[in-house]
User: What shape does this take?
Amino acid sequence: MTDEGLMKPFLLSFLCLLAGACNKPPQLANPSEAPVIEEGARLYARYCALCHGEDREGYAADYAPSLRSPELLGAAPQGYLWTAISYGRPGTAMAAFAEQQGGPLTQDNQRTLYEWLLDASDVPREPVEDATIEGNPELGAAVYQSHCAACHGEDGAGGTGTALANQVFLATASDTFIRHTVVHGRSGTPMLGFADRLSEDEVNGVVAFLRSRSVGWDAPPPVRVRPPEPADAVLHPNAPPAQLDHREDRFVSAASVALALKRGERIVLLDARPMSDWQRSHLPGALPVPFYDGVDAIRQHLPTDGTPIVAYCACPHAASGRVVDALKEHGFAAARILDEGVLHWAAQGYPLAIGKGGAP
Assistant: This one.
């Protein structure tokens, strides 16, 4: 990169990788007792298939990428793949799944899932070597707007393509891996290779431009707070039921839910994302009900008197839809999905809480 100052935040974030701490996933406590391949498949089906597809094909929900592209599974550095599972992509539908971050996977679970993904891909592992790419970020910005913004967003926040300005992505994807992806694309996805459409200077410029978006990243310590008790799921239990705007007898608008909370109306809010996302932020008073856990543990605590039960996720409808469908199967006819999900809610400036919080 021509401006060395732009590299400083990135280099600070990459210290653990350069030191070798993140080059390989942590070893199991006892490798001889590693779960069999079937356990990896089970973990994938429970936690990943909803968004990434039953056969890792991707795009089952919220444009979650394919996890069987050889350009990803064969070329990605091990640390990149490991941290993607551990820390997710803050600000997107990809949650952190590591237990240390409040997610559901122990280190052994994560190792099993990681190794199963590599084994199921059945492609040679040839991770790209880490090296700095020199390029012109101004040229790269122009190329990005012409060739990349339509899918990845004008500001890199993502769309049908990956969020390339995401802080965790930029802290864990090396220059050479980004360049490899631009050149070769991802098989089986809309991401085509640009080897025949961009010059070497243009490709390097795109890498330099994306790297210039990095502000550094340190793995945050998880916020560990006790969630509300299921018995306290009903907010404002003595108030009239929430008056919500419905669509297709399945969705309710974010604006009407925000007004119901402001008016102090009776409602139940269920966060269908992994616990790590609930810990980061959630709708005030929401009870965490991760989609992969089902609803059996909370059914006895939910009202059957017509009180609106609103589930939400970031997908924006996949995880919350699974929870709502399960509730309706058990007779909770008032269960609904928060239309457009929590990312839309946050973008509108509606209230969010961190930790236990409470209803306004």
